[in-house]
Every structure is written in structure tokens, then in C-alpha cells.
Amino acid sequence: xxxxxxxxxxxxxxxxxxxxxxxxxxxxxxxxxxxxxxxxxxxxxxxxxxxxxxxxxxxxxxxxxxxxxxxxxxxxxxxxxxxxxxxxxxxxxxxxxxxxxxxxxxxxxxxxxxxxxxxxxxxxxxxxxxxxxxxxxxxxxxxxxxxxxxxxxxxxxxxxxxxxxxxxxxxxxxxxxxxxxxxxxxxxxxxxxxxxxxxxxxxxxxxxxxxxxxxxxxxxxxxxxxxxxxxxxxxxxxxxxxxxxxxxxxxxxxxxx
Length: 257
Known about the structure:
By secondary structure, the chain is an alpha+beta fold. It folds into two domains: 22-75; 114-256, Sortase (Sortase, Chain: A). The chain has two helices and eleven strands. The protein has helices at 20-70, 94-97, and strands at residues 114-115, 118-126, 131-138, 140-143, 146-149, 156-159, 171-175, 198-203, 205-217, 232-239, 246-256. The strands form two sheets. Strands 2-3-6-7-10-11-9-8 form an eight-stranded mixed β-barrel. The protein has a two-stranded antiparallel sheet with strand order 4-5. The termini are far apart. The model has no long low-confidence stretch (mean pLDDT 78).
């Protein structure tokens, strides 16, 4: 039996109507729901990752134990958790923690022995021009019809009969070569010294002088070696270097005896 064919009827279309309040609720709830879903997914993945790491650590421990047992070695004891220990102390002693070395005092020791055949009697230091030289005694020697001062060989000459350094008065006279093939150049840089520079003289004891004047004179101007009422030191060398036609005079006042 054949049934008559019925004309196809489309299902009734369902129409949804959203009120303004429903749309507002959906707009407000949408972002929090999305964030919650993302956090839930991330949390789940984190839990899975932690479980996977735990299983891997367990497998490693089991394999290590079996390997040690196969070689007849004892298994290591379980490692206990070590809690950090905090010890309360007082204020830190900065001086004991940081030690700043102080520069050593200037070494003014006089070397024993002789130089150029003369006994060393002292030491002169001019730090600003890097002079550090022994002192020997020099005197007058006859030359022709007159007298000339001896020269010191690779040292500073302390003129006999001049004042001893550190006294209450007098002129202590010293001389040295600016350049000499045979006797060195102990005062090579003496022209560079400046007024105000410090000179340390050690003869008997250490005395500190400060440069107060510089001048150039002729070789006949022997007055620069005259004795004075105030305690001074005079240092003499030939200038210009290589010509030696004049004398450079450096005068220093005693500041600490």
C-alpha cells in the first residue's frame, strides 16, 4: 500500500529575542569567563607537568638504585630538606671586614757603603722630579792659581764647611751633574723642579725643605753659597745641558727639621 505523498513542510523557525538586559549580562560575563577558562587550562597543564616530572624523578631514582645494587654498592641515604638558618647578629664591624692598606711612610734610610770612592753620608729625595740619590762629601781642590769644588760621581755632593741640614740657621750647599759621561746625571731633571715642591734631606736625620726660589747665575757668582741667618738648602747644577755655561740655583727653606 502506498501512502500518498505529503508536501514537505519546513520546521518552524525558532526565533530568539534578546532583551537589552540579557545582552548587557552577556557582555559583562564574557571576559571573566574567558580568563577563567584560560587559567583553568593553564593550571591543568601545570599539574600534568608536575606529575610528569615526579614520575621521571621516580624512574631515575629506581634506575640508580638498580644500578648501584648490580655493582654491589650501597644506595645513598635520602636527602633531607635543609632549611636555611638565619643567625641574628649585631651591627657589622666594617673595620674588620674591609682593611684598607695605608701607604708606607717614605723610606729615608741611607745606604751603607760608598759611591765613586766616597763614603755615603746621606740621601736626597725630590719626588716631584724623581730624584733619589746618595749624598757624599765634596771639598775644594786646587786648580791652577785657584780652587774649584770637587764633583760627585753619580751622587749629590754636600759641600764641606757649609751648614748641616736641619739647623736653626745657615746654608747647606749641594751640587750635582746635569749630565756627565763619566759621573752620571743625578740632577738631570733639576731644571723641572717648581717653587713649592718638597725636598727630603737625610743627613744625620731627615729634614724637609720646600723650594722657595730658582735662579740662573754665572759660575763666578759664588755668593749663592754664602751662609745665611735662616736655615736654607741650596742645590747647584750646570745649565744649559750640554753647554754648561751657567749655574742653576735652587733655594729651599727648612719647614721641618
